[in-house]
Structures are given as C-alpha cells and as structure tokens.
Amino acid sequence: MVALTMAACGSSQVNGPRNTPAAATPRVIVAPPPAPVVDPNLDLRAGPVPVPLELRIPSLRMSAPVLGVGITPRNVMDTPTGSASDSVWQKVFWYRGGGTPGEAGTATIAGHVDDVLGRPAIFAHLKDLHPGDPIAVRDTRTGLETDFVVTATAIYTLGQTLRPAILAQIYGPGPVAGQGALPSADGLSHLTLITCIGHWVTGASTYDHRLAVYAVSIPLPHEDSRPG
Fold first, then answer.
1. Of the candidates 196, 176, 146, which has an alpha carbon nearest to the alpha carbon of residue 34?
2. Which residue in 144, 178, 181, 217 has the fewest CB atoms around it within 10 Å?
3. Alpha-carbon span 52 to 66, nearest angstrom
C-alpha cells in the first residue's frame, strides 16, 4: 500500500421588593482538548508506536488495539509483521501521516488478513462488512467513541493502488500530495479500513489485490433537533 486525528449556575428566588445584589457572572469551565494520540513531531520513518485507540467492529465481534505507523524506506505504509506467536497479527495499523479518527479528514487503518502460518489474522473477515454496518474507534484515555457507518467497499489490483485518484480515496488527498491530513469538505470524519485479498504472489511476497472498506462518521444530532 503506497502512502505518500460549565459550571452550573443557579438563581436565587426573591420574595417581595428588596435590593437585589448584582448577579454573579457565571463561570464557564472549558475542558482542554484531548492531547494528540501520537507525538506530532514523530518522524514518519520512525517505527510503529502504540496509540490510545481501539478499533471495534461489532458485526465481526472484533476489537483490536491500534499501532501508529509511518512509511518504510520504500515509501509504502508500514504494516509490521513478526513471528507466528507475535501479537502483531491481532493488531491494526493507523497511518499517522493522515487524519486521526474522529477528526474531520480521512483516517486509514490497515490490518493483516493472515499470519505467517496462514492462520486468520485480525482482518480475516473484513470482506464480510457491508454498507450500513457500524464501526467504532474508541479513545482509551477518555472512553469516548467515534461511531462510523460503512458506506462502500472496493477491491483493487496492486496496479490500481498506485493510481493517485485511488490513493486519494484511501488516504485522503493530503498525504498523497505530501501535505499531511487535510480537512474533509463535508466536515465529517472518514475512515478507510484496508487489507490484502486475492491470491498470494510468491515473487512479490504479497497478495494480488487489496480490499478497502470506506466509512463515514455519524454526525451528532443538532442541538435544535433534540426533544425539549
């Protein structure tokens, strides 16, 4: 895969005419925004790092810890591997050069379809997702989740994954142009899940196709639409 996140104020009741003290100015306590899930100064060519995120796909009964990854010396998105007993096969990889899940932009998360012994890995059943299926990304520091809904799936040949238009769909236009994450036009958070699919190509040491699942965040109800 080529790659180029008020204090409550009350009022006192006044009975009968009297001099009323000036109302105190209500204090507004603004919670600081959560810290970035990864050091923004971390070089993209540095190795994988744990990030405080968890990917959940209820229809697949799947949850997985997330590693933040960059690019390899060949300028491809890093997808770490290990021995047959390594836990990396049951983890997913968020591309930290793109958007962060929950923020307006495109976040990309990859995962292996099988391990070195051919046993199912974390994204073995990604092909079973369909439009309308829910996905959630949880911030493990706060417990807050961003809810997504699958909008489309697509299968690409390796050749197609080199095309700028398809890369922009997978990663967002910013990373492909070397600009980093860019805000999405609709103000929503977009999520791409990607894994291998198809037939193993021995010479290339990879599968001959990629499966991409596209999802978009579910916007919260507007305050005016809430029942009163």
1. 146
2. 178
3. 7
Q: Are 207 and 118 in contact (CB under 8 A)?
A: no
Structure tokens at 150: 């699958």
Q: What sign does the dihedral 136-95-183-156 (CA atoms) show?
A: negative
CB distance 148 to 217 below 8 Å: yes
Instruction: Give me the tens of pLDDT residue by residue for the chain, a chain 228 residues long.
Output: 334 423 333 322 223 333 434 444 444 444 445 688 999 889 999 999 999 999 999 999 999 999 999 999 988 999 999 999 999 999 999 999 999 999 999 999 999 999 999 999 999 999 999 999 999 999 999 999 999 999 999 999 999 999 999 999 999 998 888 888 889 989 999 999 999 999 998 888 899 999 999 999 997 655 444 444
Separation of alpha carbons 55 and 37, rounded Å: 14
Task: Evaluate whether 101 touches 5 at the Cβ level (below 8 Å).
Answer: yes
